[in-house]
Design brief:
The complex is a heterodimer of chains A (262) and B (111).
Chain A: E1 6-15, E2 18-28, E3 33-37, H1 44-51, E4 59-64, E5 67-68, H2 74-81, E6 84-87, H3 99-110, H4 115-128, H5 144-155, E7 162-166, H6 174-190, E8 194-199, H7 202-208, E9 211-216, E10 219-225, H8 226-231, H9 235-242, H10 252-260
Parallel strand pairs in A: 3-8, 3-9, 6-7, 7-8
Antiparallel strand pairs in A: 1-2, 1-4, 4-5, 9-10
Helix pairs in contact in A: 3-4, 3-5, 4-5
Chain B: E1 3-10, E2 13-22, H1 27-39, E3 44-55, H2 57-72, E4 76-80, H3 84-92, E5 100-102, H4 105-110
Parallel strand pairs in B: 2-3, 3-4, 4-5
Antiparallel strand pairs in B: 1-2
Helix pairs in contact in B: 1-2
The chains are: A alpha/beta (262), B alpha/beta (111).
The structure holds adenosine-5'-diphosphate (ADP) and magnesium ion.
Magnesium ion binds next to helix 1 of chain A.
């Protein structure tokens, strides 16, 4: 039996009175590409923040390679994080640094590698995401899709065992989005890596996923393969599958806040 | 440390035997060994990867540096005995085109 690389147990999160995650459980296995699907505002980014230790859940546990991430000390957390790459929805590149320096930064900060080796590694990673020759560009000089690729190169800088991606294709035009999905597919083949993607976009799911979980009202109402999902008779799954892209996709809280908030 | 490196010199040819995992934290040791040899302008450096179970991109980058240094004085730098997953890394990054790669010690010596 293969042990899961990530175990989520009875995880609860609430903001004030609002319960976002209501006791979720999940096992993710080594080398699978796992997609967590759900509408905007259902708690996907919140869950990812728990998974990388940026935010403590209200209750419950996360084990990454048998280390309990929720109770880990800062030092233990940092050791776990060295094996984790994260592609943030916003790309989160440092705008004052070149693309190359952005990719090199984690290596300079966390490894004993000399500059000459880091330079080669940086170029290898940029080549992998199709950005050869862009190392001296500033992020502001890149298109949205290229920024995503650069951020992906940075997430891969340390050869992580686990890669988390938050809405990798959100906000990109459809052709560029397909390019990012294909890139994730290529990475999946190239590296022995566990990839966890959260998204509200159904189209990419069927391209990249080995298994899928549908997060709905704080719970996983479906976990299974693509085929199992297509055959599922769970009403919410059917609804999700039949929904036109992005139809009705809004975070109600955010929308309301945008109207009444300060 | 989960890495061991030994060298043996036979007829002007240096074998670098690497055993274990070459990763971000251990590859500087490989680098040091290889750079010691290129500083002495060793004419033939043969890297034995038979016992390398895992190599990340820092390991690959380190070997690229070794090759580059060795090319500067027209030395020969070759790899042999790559396990399947290590070979895959080279193929996917198309570095199998840059390196001389052999299946075993014998064929590395022949050429
Ligand atoms: N820091 C926060 N404080 C209060 N509410 C939040 C906070 N972060 C997110 N939320 C709310 O929690 C819900 C889940 O948010 P999020 O995890 O960002 O969802 P998703 O990534 O699926 O769009 C949303 O309703 C959002 O408005
Ligand atoms: Mg989100």
């Amino acid at each position: 039996m293969v042990e899961p690389i990530i175990k989520i147990r009875d995880l609860h999160t609430q903001y004030g009175d609002k319960k976002v995650l209501k006791g979720i459980n999940l096992d993710i296995y080594p080398y699978e590409t796992f997609v967590i699907l759900g509408r905007s505002g259902c708690g996907k980014s919140t869950l990812l923040r728990h998974l990388i230790g940026l935010q403590k859940p209200t209750q419950g546990y996360i084990y990454i390679k048998d280390n309990n991430f929720v109770t880990a000390s800062e030092k233990e957390k940092n050791d776990i994080l060295k094996n984790i790459g994260m592609l943030f929805q916003s790309s989160a590149l440092f705008n004052s640094m070149t693309v190359g320096d952005n990719v090199a930064l984690p290596l300079r900060e966390h490894t004993p590698q000399p500059d000459s080796t880091i330079k080669i590694m940086t170029r290898m990673k940029l080549g992998l995401v199709g950005l050869s020759g862009f190392e001296n560009f500033m992020p502001a000089e890149l298109s949205g899709g290229m920024k995503k690729r650069a951020a992906l190169a940075r997430a891969l800088a340390m050869d992580p065992e686990i890669l988390f991606c938050d809405e990798p294709s959100a906000g990109l035009d459809p052709i560029v989005a397909v390019g990012i999905d294909n890139l994730i597919l290529k990475l999946k083949k190239a590296f022995k890596m566990t990839i966890v993607v959260v998204t509200h976009e159904l189209e990419s799911v069927f391209v990249i996923a080995d298994r899928i979980a549908l997060l709905h009202e704080g719970e996983f109402i479906f976990v299974g393969t693509k085929d199992e999902m297509r055959r599922s008779e769970v009403p919410v799954v059917r609804q999700f599958l039949q929904r036109a892209p992005d139809e009705d996709d809004m975070d109600k809280d955010k929308f309301l806040n945008s109207l009444i908030g300060g | 440390m989960n890495l061991e490196i030994t060298t043996e010199e036979i007829d002007q040819k240096v074998f670098v035997n690497i055993k274990g995992e070459v990763d971000l934290y251990s590859s500087p040791e490989v680098r040091k060994k290889i750079f010691d040899l290129v500083k002495k302008k060793a004419p033939v450096i043969l890297i034995n990867l038979e016992k390398v179970k895992y190599m990340d991109s820092s390991g690959v980058a380190t070997l690229i540096e070794g090759l580059q240094q060795c090319n500067k004085y027209n030395g020969r730098f070759a790899l042999y005995g790559l396990q399947d997953n290590v070979r895959e890394v080279f193929e996917l990054t198309r570095l199998d085109k840059i390196f001389e790669i052999y299946s075993d010690r014998e064929s590395a010596l022949k050429n």
